Amino acid sequence: MDLPTAGLLGSQLQSICSGSFFLVFNPSLTLRSRIRRTSLPHVKFILPNASIINVHVPIAGAPGETQLPAWWDPFITDGIRSVWAGKDTPINDVEGFKKATANLEKIIEEEANLVAPGRVILGGFSQGTVLSLAVGLENTKVGGIIALSSSLSVPDSFKSVGTTDPSTLKKAIFWAHGTADYVPINWATQSIDYLVNPVGFKKISKNEAPTAGTITWSSSEGLKHETNEEELEDIQKW
């Protein structure tokens, strides 16, 4: 279930982020500009970038190796599979994933000392989503997670699969995915289904008010492996 690229995300989260900070993975120039225009002096934005590493991905339809910004090597040699494997299959690049989670946990630990518990929001796109969920779902310092164009890795996100940590359902999640994304949208919907049952989250629409223990779901018709203004506006409202 590994994904081939690192993530990007940016938004204005005034209602939830008041007195906290918001993590963003690999924001594009457009999103960086959007963040610069944001007048939220009480919010600290942290924008870490994935390093350029060797990754195994299809090239011209054949297995290949190249260098791309990525949090870990996805080892996708035969293309993206239509079936979500994240319920049972952990990340292939164990060392790369371990390094990525350690880096993120270090940032959270340093910054959480400056704010009240639960005032940290994680956000990710593609691999950034997998990473945010893996680090954030059982971290007591994290109050919310934004997940775009990706899925959940169950074995990498829960210390004890089948047992819900008390802090997990104290978080709110915003999850969005495009219907034309090369990462199949069922990867996202099946991940959410797992978080609903057995974990215990409640799935709601973007028109409903988010609370602890809810997953706000939004799909964008025709959207590929990217984000757009509508999606960012939905995040802002959330």
TrEMBL record:
Enzyme Commission designation: 3.1.2.22
SUPFAM superfamilies registered for this protein in UniProt: alpha/beta-Hydrolases
Listed GO CC annotations: cytoplasm
Alphabetic keyword roster: Fatty acid metabolism, Hydrolase, Lipid metabolism, Serine esterase
Pfam annotation, one family: Abhydrolase_2
GO biological process terms on file: fatty acid metabolic process
Alphabetical list of Gene3D superfamilies matching this protein: alpha/beta hydrolase
Reaction catalysed by this enzyme: S-hexadecanoyl-L-cysteinyl-[protein] + H2O = L-cysteinyl-[protein] + hexadecanoate + H(+)
Span of domain Phospholipase/carboxylesterase/thioesterase: 38-237
GO-annotated molecular function: carboxylic ester hydrolase activity; palmitoyl-(protein) hydrolase activity
Keyword Lipid metabolism (UniProt): yes
UniProt family annotation: Belongs to the AB hydrolase superfamily. AB hydrolase 2 family.
Function: Hydrolyzes fatty acids from S-acylated cysteine residues in proteins with a strong preference for palmitoylated G-alpha proteins over other acyl substrates. Mediates the deacylation of G-alpha proteins such as GPA1 in vivo, but has weak or no activity toward palmitoylated Ras proteins. Has weak lysophospholipase activity in vitro; however such activity may not exist in vivo.
Name of the protein in question: Acyl-protein thioesterase 1
Species of the source: Hyaloscypha variabilis (strain UAMH 11265 / GT02V1 / F)
